[in-house]
């Protein structure tokens, strides 16, 4: 038996139950991984609350972790016993001491990256990578807007975009978070609780707007994000932390010949080749210092509910990990 967090019924943070589960030996194509650190992300909140549907109930949640391979099933060639590995993107179930997972979803962790860092960077790092290099490939000289610039995803986007030659504008909720964003590549942090961020974006850009908005907030920012775009600008809605945006007519995009995308990580790591390419880039920018990772905020696995409350309450910056 191993300890795991499972959902018996969707709900708030207290819907997560810390309980014993029985694991089977690994089957064909599977690996048995003992977790050393587990990543916490907003997508976990969506699964916990029922916004995203779990395959069945009760079911584990969590999309990201690092650990050690303790056994492999028949036909596994991707990893071997004793390998340090990490994964992100599902299937849900990382909030556990150990788990079975398809071996093709695992990547080996380079020696330069420790387990806690690996658990904190896979999902956010690969998301930042596809957003900046594939969904909307930014160019040197672009001006971009990043919402929640001091959050885990925001810090990734700000640092990597700056390294790619962009001028980064970012929204934050406090002086403290604005200072953190500025320290990490955001040239123009805007405290949206004190200023109208649309007006400030237009002031910074001389009335032109930005080439792209990376919006993981959703309902609270969506309409104003559209206002911040330049002509032929691109709104990339990659998350809905505040809820889904209100419906709007596609013809509203015509005023600026704007485009709107709602991408998901799964479609950018659908093959083993794509997964390895994404992970390789993420490990590289962390190892060479292009993206500096804050020490993750740590909670014990049994305290996952408190981690979710702090995440939803915007009491956290950077990444969160659970320790088994």
Automatic annotation (TrEMBL):
Signal sequence interval, chain numbering: none
Domain Enoyl reductase (ER) as annotated: residue spans: 11-322
Annotated Gene Ontology cellular component terms: cytosol
Keywords: NADP, Oxidoreductase
Pfam families documented for this protein: ADH_N, ADH_zinc_N
Superkingdom assignment: Bacteria
SMART domains (alphabetical): PKS_ER
UniProt xrefs under InterPro entries: ADH-like_C, ADH-like_N, ER, GroES-like_sf, NAD(P)-bd_dom_sf, QOR-like, Quin_OxRdtase/zeta-crystal_CS
Single Gene Ontology MF annotation: zinc ion binding
Name assigned to this protein: NADPH2:quinone reductase
Organism: Phreatobacter oligotrophus
